[in-house]
Structures are given as C-alpha cells and as structure tokens.
Amino acid sequence: MSANGIKLYHPTGILRGKVQLPASKSESNRALLIQALSQKKITLHNLSDANDTVLLQRLLHAPEKKINAEDAGTVMRFLTAYFSLTNQSKILTGTERMCQRPIGILVEALRELGAEINYLDKEGFPPLEILSFKPRFSGKAKVKLLGDVSSQYISALLLCAPALPAGLELELEGKIASRPYIEMTLALMREFGVKAAFAGKRIEVEKQNYAGGAFAVEADWSAASYWYSIAAFAKEAEILLLGLKGNSLQGDSRVAELMKRFGVKTTFLPEGALLTKTAEPEEKTAIDFSDIPDLAQTFAVLAATKNVELEMTGLESLRIKETDRIAALQTELTKFGVALTEIKPGAFLVKNASNFKGEGFESHPLSNSKNQIKTYHDHRMAMAFAPLALLQEIEIEDPEVVRKSYPKFWKELRKVGFVIAEV
Ligand SMILES: O=C(O)C1=C[C@@H](OP(=O)(O)O)[C@@H](O)[C@H](O)C1
Ligand SMILES: C=C(OP(=O)(O)O)C(=O)O
Prior knowledge:
Pathway: Metabolic intermediate biosynthesis; chorismate biosynthesis; chorismate from D-erythrose 4-phosphate and phosphoenolpyruvate: step 6/7. GO terms for molecular function: 3-phosphoshikimate 1-carboxyvinyltransferase activity. Helix 1 runs parallel beside helix 2, helix 5 (about 150-160) runs parallel beside helix 6 (about 180-190) and helix 9 runs parallel beside helix 11. Helix content is about 30%, strand content about 25%. The protein has helices at about 25-35, 50-60, 75-85, 105-115, 150-160, 180-190, 220-235, 255-260, 295-305, 325-335, 380-385, 410-415, and strands spanning about 5-10, 15-20, 40-45, 65-70, 90-95, 115-120, 130-135, 140-145, 170-175, 195-200, 200-205, 215, 235-240, 265-270, 270-275, 285-290, 310-315, 340-345, 345-350, 370-375, 395, 420. The protein folds into two domains: about 5-15 and about 245-255 and about 280-420, Enolpyruvate transferase domain (UDP-n-acetylglucosamine1-carboxyvinyl-transferase, Chain), CATH 3.65.10; about 25-215, UDP-n-acetylglucosamine1-carboxyvinyl-transferase, Chain, CATH 3.65.10.10.
C-alpha cells in the first residue's frame, strides 16, 4: 500500500475472525543486540517484521561508517551504546524527527564510561559521531542518570553492560518512566544467562558473557491494543489474536485488564487471546500511563469517541516520541468535539463535549468534513484512529506509516471485514 491516504469503513460492525499480530519489536530488538554481543550461537525465532526490527538487524552488521536509524528510537539509542562500547567508529543519524528526539542523557553516561562522542549538529541530539572507547574505570563503572526521560537510555546501557571490563552500576535519578521496558531488558538478559540486580533505583550488572541458546519472540501487546479498541467499537466482536499470551514480558499486556473497563473481555486459549465485546464502557475512569506510554493514544481515542471521561496521568514522555503525541491527539480529537486538556504537568483529561453515547454509527457526530485523520509520521496515530471506521467512513493519511511496528495492519483489518480503498 503506497497511497497518500486510505478511506475505510466496516459495513456491518460485526466482527468475527482470527488475526495475526506482529512479533514484539521491543523484544526483537533486545534479542538482536544480545545476539550481536554474544560470542555463542543464539537462534532467534519469530523476529518482528516491523521496520524497527528489520532495520536494527541490518544496521548492527552494516559495514558503512554512516548509519541511519530512521525513525526508530530503540535503534538509535541501542546502537549509540553498542557502537560506543564495542569501539566502532560510526556516524549515527536518523529522520528529521529523530534529530529532535533527545539523546544527551545517554551520550553523557557513555562519555563517563570512556566513549568519545561528538554532536554533529545540536548539542544533546543526533546526528552523533562516535569515535572511540577507552574505559575510564579500573573497577566497576558507576554512572548516575535521569530515569524520567526515556527508559531506552537505560536499556541500551544495560544490554551492553556485561561486556564492560568490570561491569556496571547504574543509579537512576528522578521518577523511573517506562519501567516495564527496563524489566523486559533484564528478563531478556537473564534468558541468555546474564544476571543483574535491580533494587530501589540501583541496577548492577557484573562482567559476564551472554550464553548461547534459542528464544522465540512473543506477539506484540502494543499492537494488540488496536484490536481491543476495535472490539470496543464493534456492535459485536469475537476476535482471536493469534499467538498472544497472557504471561508476557511486555508491560503493555496490561491492556487486557484495562480494557475490561471498556467492555472487552479476554479469554486466553491455546491458539491465542480471544477478545469478546461484553458491555459498553464505564462513563468515567482514570489510567496512569507511566508504565505503558505506547497505549496512551489507543485509550485517548477510544475514550474520546465513546464519551468516556478519562483522566490520563504519566504522559510526560509523549511529547518526545515519533511526533509530539499530545499536540497530535489534541489537533485530531478536536475534529470530534473532544478536548484533551492539561490538568497538571503530564496529566490530561479527555472530555467529549458532544454528548455522543456511542450507540451507533449514524448518530455519531463525526461528519464528513471531520473524518480526515492526519498521522504526523506516527504509526500509533494511524492505528489508534483506525477503529473509528466502525462508526463511519474515515480517511487516514499516509497509511504506510504503520510499517514501523505493524506492516500488515491494514491487511489484517480487511480479514475481519473492513473495506479499505486508496484515495
Ligand atoms: O525500550 C523499548 O522497546 C521502548 C520503550 C518505550 O520508550 P521510552 O522508554 O522512551 O518511553 C516505548 O515507548 C517504546 O515504544 C519502546
Ligand atoms: C515510541 C515508540 O517507538 P520508539 O521510541 O522506539 O521510536 C513507539 O513505538 O511507540
């Protein structure tokens, strides 16, 4: 699909079928980094087909000096640590947006460890020139860094830590954002025989070698969230998300419990997770997104158009993702008469002024002039708004954007009856 835009709708609102999810890009990218750092043979099964993963796999072993991480945050941050600490001289850049996403906290930590890194444009942002690594610590390296901007800096350092001459001790300062992603990193390290101690705000990793072995990447829970939203919007839904398991390394698996409040039930079957629409949403609820930032857009759009008053906290990191997700949501939700209002720093209230009760598609205030969704180079904008096609025909700009995490998204929508055409 290489259209400027697509229009989509669902003729019946009744959804039954089996759906394929992508494999987790977060797990895939950690596993790929561990594989590159291990001297033993590591076999990875079910790697994600997300562009973020395909890209990392290629760039880890690319002979070129100039490396382009495109719009992939984990790729940019993981490779910065990897090239620095394995002493590979590289120039690391990305899209225009990537060059506006901060990386100073990670670069500072790497410099303290002994990496020579220069900023090629703006201080604190890509592009970077990575020159050399001369360890500055004779014993265990100790670094303090802020934990409230991006957990990807912490994961990047942890993944490379076992290869440092005498291990690493990280002391996290401030709030720890996206904590489940740090836990996922440590779990993946453990999977390959590397132990770490995470107590309070201190994480310690001794010098160790990654063991060989095999690992199968789980299905992606962040991607699953759009299907939950689809189930909530449907008149009737029974959707089987193939391969999705309850006991997951991914923090975003919390979507299963949270979506009960929006009337979607999950039943774990041997084949995957069965989503069933059982009720209409609660009228008012609150969710803290500090641990689950990638779910924020899913819930904001769902609450907004289902007339749920939703208090969203822990949104501090949303302005430095693929786009300023707060601004993007505010602009697009206004089209539905919904305000996303800041009530204190990092906290927002979703409130629908149009009194729509979510009862049916004809009565929805979404009028033809308002049904064009802009996506701002952000895959999650496209996927979070797509379920609105169950209410009325909508247009989504730049459908290709989903390739970052879920290239087959539109194909899977078609399988359960969505009608999609290029515009
Ligand atoms: O480590 C990871 O795989 C990720 C961590 C999170 O980023 P932050 O730690 O920057 O919030 C998340 O938003 C991103 O999609 C993936
Ligand atoms: C924020 C995301 O990705 P990244 O930070 O890795 O670009 C995301 O996938 O929503």
